[in-house]
Amino acid sequence: MENAKIALNMSMVKFIMWEKGPDYTFERVKKAGVSYFELSQVDMTDDFIKAAIEASEKHGVKIIASSVNFEPLFGGKGKGLDLVADLDRLIEVNHKLGVEYVRDSLMPRSCVHNEEGFHKAAEALNHYGKILKDAGIHLYYHNHHFEFEKFNGKTGFEILFEETDPEYVGFEPDVHWIQRAGEDPVKWIEKLSGREDLVHLKDYRIMLPAIDTLSADLFHHEACIQFAEIGEGNLDMKTIIEKSLAGGAKYLPVEQDDCYGRDPFECLANSVENIKKMGFGNLL
């Protein structure tokens, strides 16, 4: 899609945002070569919103999406706003930020080992998606690998895809987690065409632990799987980006859940350089 843009998801720099705030964070994001930003895992206080708007204008980093909690997977109330309890506040905050997309970024707790939970979640997403659309905001669902548990031959993610209304609910496929679930990221991007304004770019790297720690337990754990900078892992990122653009993606947020001791802004700059080498410098 013409005019699509590379972005950054905040989870990659969340500790820096929490400690140093939007001004420092957005300055570093811009220096790394990215001008679009997804808010995630942050308390949406009035002070934070004011600081984020000021930093956005100062550094030329546009906020394009925020996150919302819906039946939090790990229980309790996570950072940020709740889709049900804070609906009015959610709309107010995102209007202030000028944000078009709100993302549910974790599977609802009620879906754990529960097919009926996915059917009910799809119904709820349709309900709240309509309310948000009427307010000028698009509701999107971001996957991990949890959603790919099978129930009678069909995964939970397939249930969400089939039972949510494209008019009210979009999807933000995370290609690393789709790969980790044993599914094909490219095929899912093609399947979600028209419903994926947002696509998370995250590479998938194999890295064995130190040799003196190796044991046969390695076959039973994911210890050798890492989150990688774009172009530094095993995913066909060039094809993934091409298919995402063909499917209507407007923003391609880079995300790396763990940088393994490296400065996350250096990792981001590494991803940016590799994206340029792939021929997508026009997306920056």
Question: What's this, in brief?
Answer:
The protein contains nine helices and twelve strands.
Computed CA radius of gyration, to the nearest angstrom? 18 Å
Oligomer: single chain
| Biggest beta-sheet profile | 8 strands, parallel
- The succession of helices and strands, N to C, reads EHEHEEHEHEEEHEHHEEHEH
Question: Mean of the pLDDT scores?
Answer: 96
Percent range for β-strand residues: 15-25%
Count every beta strand, where a strand is a DSSP E run of 2 or more residues.
12
Approximate shape: globular
Distance between the termini: 14 Å
Query: How many alpha or pi helices?
Result: 9
pLDDT < 50 runs, ≥5 residues: none
| Structural class label | alpha/beta
What percentage of residues falls in helices of 4 or more residues?
25-40%
Keywords, please?
284 residues; alpha/beta; 8-stranded parallel beta sheet; two-stranded antiparallel ribbon; 9 helices; Xyl_isomerase-like_sf; isomerase activity
Could you describe the 3D structure shown?
Helix 4 packs parallel to helix 5. The two termini are 14 Å apart. Strand 1, helix 1 and strand 2 form a beta-alpha-beta unit. It is built from 9 helices and 12 strands. It is an alpha/beta fold and 284 residues long. The strands form 3 sheets. Strands 1, 2, 3, 4, 5, 6, 9 and 12 form an 8-stranded parallel sheet that branches.
